[in-house]
Amino acid sequence: MKALSCADAQGRPGREPLRPDVSKSHLNELPTELILSIFSFLELKPYITSHAVCKLWQRLLPHAEIHPIRRRMLQLYHHMLQAPKFLETRPWLLENLQPFDRQAYIEGLLDQYSDIPEEFQLWVLEWPEKMAVLGIWPGLPLVRFNASTTQTYEGVNWMAYINPLLLALVYNKGSPDIKDNLTPALLIWKTSEHSHWLLFDQDVPELFGRVLLTTYPESPAFYPTLEMYGDDDMPFFVEDFPDWISYLKHRWDAGLKTCPPSYAYANLTDRIKFPVSYQFSSFNGQVLPSPPWTDRQRSGFLEDIRRLLLRLNGGG
Q1: Which residue ranges have biased composition labelled Basic and acidic residues (predicted)?
Q2: pLDDT at position 281, please?
Q3: Is the separation of the CB atoms in 248 and 136 below 8 Å?
Q4: Which of 21, 56, 16, 22 is nearest to 39 (CA)?
């Protein structure tokens, strides 16, 4: 078929000029119920940008029945924008954002475990990269921040590891089989004192999708529980969040309250060197404290766990 030229499109003498299909209805002419139904299928970023299309859309969008997790992400998005210090949190992030394949990131996790917490999955796929919370984002350099500021926390953003890597977190389930006392977890952030974990364990429903912030002098690769100690002698600190969105909101609010204002950028000479070493229970924020989930049955690692559990149970 011959391509239509500009002259044809504008009309030539003796020809009827081409006209747009005037019978086609504009979206705004559709019934309100149908417009709201269309809006309900929007992903987060199109939903956000649609507010700027016209006043009618701006008025209707809040009434669309969007996915409840998208609704919570939208609430977090607006909560962040309303912070007086919001602009102070952006410079380093905007200068260092790197492209990454969001779908490949999710598929990489699914290659290691059969399911992903839904809040985390939608966040990876749809969250605007320029709205990352204080350095927590896969598309940023893997560096160690030497101090906490309004731009990032002190420590290492382990989400920026080359490929997403589930680790084997020790969780004492009381089983005599060492392998049963492990839970798959994604290391999110790590300092010399704190470890932040997103749990993937479907076999323990109360753990799946939770986020733990642990400070435990015995081992950063161990999830301590209250049952291990009396109320007066707990040698650890644990903050427990029911899901990924709750964790992000906490990190945002806590960071703006406690971190001093600063425009000092991270020293990028502190980039983590590859290949990253594994040292079981290491407090060094720049090494992995436990091995990959897919290597959890390695004999040397199982022996490390056996010794740790024996020591924690008072056996030496």
Answers
A1: 13-23
A2: 66
A3: yes
A4: 56
For every residue of the chain, DSSP letters joined together read: -PPPPHHHHH--TTSPPP---TTSPPGGGS-HHHHHHHHTT--HHHHHHGGGT-HHHHHHGGGS---HHHHHHHHHHHHHHT-TTGGGGSHHHHHH-----HHHHHHHHHTTSS---HHHHHHHHHS-GGG-BTTB-TTS--BEESS--SS--SEEEGGGSSS--EEEEEE----SSGGGGEEEEEEEEE-SS-EEEEE--TTSTTTTT-EEEEE-SS-TTEE--GGGS-TT----EEEEESSHHHHHHHHHHHHHHHSPP--PPP-GGGBPPSSPPB-TT---TTSBSS-BGGGTT-HHHHHHHHHHHHHHTT--
Contact 155, 259 (CB under 8 A): no
The closest of 91, 98, 80 to 266, measured between CA atoms, is 91
Percent of the chain with pLDDT over 70: 77
Segment of 15-29, 88-102, 247-261 carrying the highest mean pLDDT: 88-102
Confidence at 290, pLDDT banded by 50, 70, 90: confident
Q: Which helix (H) or strand (E) holds 167?
A: strand 166-171
Contact (Cβ atoms closer than 8 angstroms) between residue 273 and residue 102: no
Residues of the chain with CATH 1.20.1280: 28-66
For domain 28-66, give the fold.
Monooxygenase (1.20.1280)
Can you name the residues that pair with 195 across neighbouring β-strands?
190, 214
How many angstroms separate the CA atoms of 290 and 47, rounded? 40
CB 183 within 8 A of CB 171: yes
Mean local confidence (pLDDT), 46-73:
85
Per DSSP, what are the bridge partners of residue 249? none
Query: Which tokens in the block code for residue 120?
Result: 């985390």
Between the alpha carbon of residue 73 and those of residues 12, 15, 120, 125, the distances in Å are 54, 54, 11, 12
